[in-house]
């Protein structure tokens, strides 16, 4: 990281005009993608990156080069992927809340779409009854109800989950009937959850789904063609290395052991990883604007440009999202030595806006550069408009012969771009 910070300082990219920014390690990302493909190399696998985790165009162009698909959480994301050149069949349109218009457009555009519930099935069925074009793969999201992990906010396989239809003893027959009545329903989708889910729970989810597919085979033979096993493998926020227990190869080995038929080639298989591919490639930087140390016996408070504006989960769920931090002086030198414990405040106008509390840093001073590690997923993509704080620039980097080369993914937002969100000056009668 030292060489990257050095380059940022050398290029004057962190200053009053841009007090915070993000960088993304493209070499690291490539390695993660390579390890995913190495573990699941079969051509019946489509690895669709969960683009909500980080949808910057320059990054998605890289994703495209890897031959990946794009898992999209909204119609807009699906159009974003299409405009960038993803082939429609590799665009996985997964929103849990779709309008009729969005679903019909998705069919016309040839996206692979996963439906969420019985109303969506009914509406698509009615549409297809009058539609004569080619019908893409359309699936149903089921909830395998295998339980929750350490973070309830991202655990989607409890009985009370809002996603998909729960596969339970008393709902099984009903779900089978949807497949019997709707021959165009040719795929099944699960996503057990995200960070904090034990690996065995993911495997269990796929096992439950696969058992259900076998049941469907006896009732509607040959109808199911695609199995979408979702994303969700954990990475680590507290360790600089990826966790050994969660390698893609370990996941594959466990799936192979429990569900060998998954690898027979009988079905097209889709994966939807996000965080585990992206997180450790990203780093966020902010200037420390000021340091408050007024109350005797209390921790100093660093005032910075990053808080809920980019890190809502970290602010509201600090118990499950603790990042690693480090600190550099304004001239790009890493600060080492005795550490003090501080709280890190963000720029937003509410008292709860702390990026983190009780963080140990070496002699933090105004103008220093605070480095937030492991921010490549679900941070830049969660940018919020409250207080109209301008989003910082985003830069990709690679090392060529050991030298860092920075490329701009996105310049810092302008005041005009930011204010466009607040509507027109003149209201109009409607
Ligand atoms: C349906 C779906 N697929 C894939 C993902 C990606 O999960 P992760 O980034 O943890 O791999 C999510 C994330 O919440 C999701 O909701």
Could you characterize the architecture of this molecule?
- Strand 14 and strand 15 form a beta hairpin.
- The longest helix is centred in the middle third of the chain and has 21 residues, at 199-219.
- Strands 1, 11, 12, 13, 14, 15, 16, 17 and 18 form a nine-stranded mixed beta sheet that branches. Strands 2-3-4-5-6-8-9-10 form an eight-stranded parallel beta barrel, surrounded by four helices.
- With 430 residues, the protein is of the alpha/beta class.
- The N and C termini lie far apart (53 Å).
- It contains twelve helices and 18 strands.
- It folds into two domains: 2-23 and 280-411, Lyase, Ornithine Decarboxylase, Chain A, domain 1 (Beta Barrel); 94-273, TIM Barrel, CATH 3.20.20.10.
- Helix content is 28%, strand content 23%.
- The radius of gyration is 23 Å and the shape is globular.
- Helix 2 runs parallel beside helix 9 (248-258), helix 7 (172-181) crosses helix 8 (199-219) and helix 8 packs across helix 9 (248-258).
- Pyridoxal-5'-phosphate binds at residues 50, 53, 71, 94, 191, 194, 230-232, 272-276.
- Pyridoxal-5'-phosphate is lined by residues 50, 53, 71, 94, 191, 194, 230-232, 272-276.
State the end-to-end distance.
53 Å
Number of helices: 12
Fraction of residues in H or I helices = 25-40%
Small molecules bound in the structure, each named once = pyridoxal-5'-phosphate
How much β-strand is present in the residues? 15-25%
At the first level of CATH, the class of the largest domain is: Alpha Beta
> What is the average of the pLDDT values?
96
What is the correct CATH architecture of the largest domain? Answer: Alpha-Beta Barrel
- The radius of gyration computed from the alpha-carbon positions, rounded to a whole number of angstroms, is 23 Å
Quaternary state reads: single chain
Instruction: Give me the count of strands.
Output: 18
**Largest sheet data:** 9 strands, mixed
Structural class of the secondary structure composition? alpha/beta
Helices and strands, in order, run as HEHEHEHEHEHEEHEHEHEHEEHEEEEEEH
How many distinct domains?
A: 2
């Amino acid at each position: 990281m030292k060489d990257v910070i050095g380059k940022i300082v050398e290029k004057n990219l962190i200053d009053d005009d841009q007090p915070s920014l993000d960088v993304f390690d493209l070499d690291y990302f490539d390695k993660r993608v390579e390890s995913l493909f190495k573990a699941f190399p079969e051509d019946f696998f489509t690895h669709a990156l969960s683009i909500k985790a980080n949808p910057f165009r320059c990054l998605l162009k890289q994703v495209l080069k890897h031959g990946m698909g794009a898992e999209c959480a909204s119609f807009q994301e699906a159009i974003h992927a299409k405009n960038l050149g993803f082939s429609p069949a590799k665009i996985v349109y997964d929103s849990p809340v779709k309008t009729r218009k969005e679903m019909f457009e998705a069919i016309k555009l040839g996206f692979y779409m996963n439906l969420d519930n019985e109303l969506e099935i009914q509406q698509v069925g009615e549409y297809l009854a009058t539609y004569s074009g080619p019908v893409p793969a359309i699936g149903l999201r089921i909830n395998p109800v295998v339980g929750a992990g350490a973070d309830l906010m991202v655990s989607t396989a409890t009985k009370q989950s809002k996603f998909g239809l729960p596969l339970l003893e008393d709902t099984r027959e009903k779900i089978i009937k949807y497949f019997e009545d709707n021959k165009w329903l040719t795929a099944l989708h699960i996503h057990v959850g995200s960070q904090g889910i034990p690996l065995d729970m993911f495997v269990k989810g796929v096992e439950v789904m696969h058992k259900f597919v076998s049941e469907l085979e006896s009732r509607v033979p040959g109808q199911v063609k695609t199995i979408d096993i979702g994303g969700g493998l954990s990475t680590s926020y507290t360790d600089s290395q990826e966790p050994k227990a969660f390698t893609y190869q370990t996941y594959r080995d466990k799936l192979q052991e429990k569900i060998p038929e998954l690898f027979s080639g009988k079905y097209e298989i889709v994966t939807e990883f996000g965080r585990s591919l992206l997180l450790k490639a990203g780093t966020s930087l902010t200037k420390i604007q000021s340091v408050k140390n007024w109350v005797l016996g209390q921790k100093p408070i660093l005032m910075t440009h990053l808080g809920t504006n980019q890190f809502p989960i970290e602010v509201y769920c600090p118990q499950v999202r603790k990042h690693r931090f480090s600190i550099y002086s304004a001239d790009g030198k890493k600060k080492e030595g005795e550490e003090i414990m501080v709280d890190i405040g963000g720029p937003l106008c509410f008292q709860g806006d702390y990026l983190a509390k009780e963080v140990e840093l070496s002699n933090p001073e105004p103008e220093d550069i605070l480095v937030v590690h492991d921010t490549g997923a679900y941070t830049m993509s969660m940018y919020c408009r409250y207080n109209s704080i301008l989003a910082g620039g985003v830069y990709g980097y690679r090392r060529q012969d050991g030298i860092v080369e920075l490329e701009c993914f996105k310049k810092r937002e302008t005041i005009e771009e930011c204010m466009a969100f607040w509507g027109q000056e003149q209201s109009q009668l409607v």
